[in-house]
Amino acid sequence: MDALDRILAQESFGLDDLETLLSLEDPDERARLHAAAYRVKLREVGPVVHLRGLIEITNVCARDCLYCGIRQGNDALDRYEVDEDEVVAAARWAWDQGFGSAVLQGGERCDARFVDYIERILQRMQGFAEGGLGVTLSLGEQSEDTLRRWRRAGAQRYLLRIETTNRDLFAAIHADDQDFDERLACLRLLRACGYQVGTGVMIGLPGQTPADLARDVLFMRDQDVDMVGMGPFIPHEDTPMADSLGDFDRVRGEQLERGLMMIACVRLVLRDVNIASTTALQALAPDGRERGLRAGANILMPNLTDTRFRAGYQLYDGKPGLAEDSEASTRALQRSVVAIGETIGYHQLGTSPRYLRRRG
Ligand code: SAM
Question: I need a surface site. Which of 14, 229, 231, 307 has the fewest CB within 10 A?
Fold first, then answer.
C-alpha cells in the first residue's frame, strides 16, 4: 500500500490529504483518485444519472463579476428575457420527457417585476407537475422575502456558488459591491427558507492553489450542502479576466483535470450529495461530462434554452451547444450515460440522498 492508497482508504479527509489529492500530477495516480471516488458514488447514489433540464431564462444581470460573460458591464451582448409562456413550455417539455427536475438560471436581478415573473412561472409549473418535477433556482443572491416567496411558489432547491472560499481571491474576481460575507449569509438563508441547498466553486482561477481548493471542499462539507455544482474557470474574451490565464490553450487540459479531481474529492468527502457534471467540462473536452460522471458526478443538465438565446448566454468562450436544440442536447447526454454503462433515473425527482437522510 503506497501513500496514495492510504489516503484513499481513509473514511475522513483533512486539509493535507485533500491538498495532496488535488496536487496529483501523475495520470495513473489521478485515475486511481477518480476510481476511488467512483466506487463511493456507486455505493452512495448508485449508477444512476438524474437529468436537470437547464433553462437560461435571462442574461440581464445587475452584477459585474469580473469573470462572467453576462456581467452587466459587457456591452457586446444583446440582452434577453425568455417569455413566461416559453419558460413554462420548456419545463413542460422536461416533464413530458420524464426528467426529474428543471433548473431556472439567469443573471442576478432583484427588481419586483422579475420576482413576480419567477413566482408566476413556479406556480404554473406546479399546475402541471404537482410537485413531481423538482425545481432548482440559480438566480444569485436574493432577499429573504423573495426566497420565501419563491419557495412557497414551488421551488425546492437553490444553487448559489460561493465561487471561492479564499476571501482575497473572491475580492479580486468580483466588483467592489460584492461581498463574500453577504454571499455566505445568503447561502445560509437558503437552508432557513427550506431549500435543498447547493453550492460550488470555480476551479483553476488565477492564483488559486490546491490548498484553496482543499478548503473549498471542506467548506462544502461544513455547510452540509445537498448539491454541488462546480466547474473549471474558462475565460471570456469580453471580460476583465480574458487574459488572466495567459494562453488558454496551454492550460485547457489542466483545467479539465483540476475539475475532475475536484469532483472526485467532493465525492470522497461529502459522499451522498448530488454532484453535477457541468457544461464547462464539456467545453474543455468533448467527453468532459462523461469523464465527470466517471470521477464521481451523478447529475447532467441538458440545456433546454431555445437556440435563439444561446449566443446571449455565453458565460465563457467556447461554451458548447450553440446550435443544439433541447432534443439534440438531451439525446447527446443520453448517449453519454449509456456509453459509461449507467442508466438515467426517469420520472424520479433525484433528490439528494444527503437531504433525504438529514430529513430522516
Ligand atoms: N447569477 C447567478 C449567480 O451568480 O449565482 C447564476 C448565474 S451565473 C452565470 C452561474 C455560474 O456561472 C456562476 O456561479 C459562475 O460560477 C459560473 N461562471 C460564470 N462565468 C464563468 C466562467 N468564465 N468560467 C466558468 N464558470 C463561470
Answer: 14
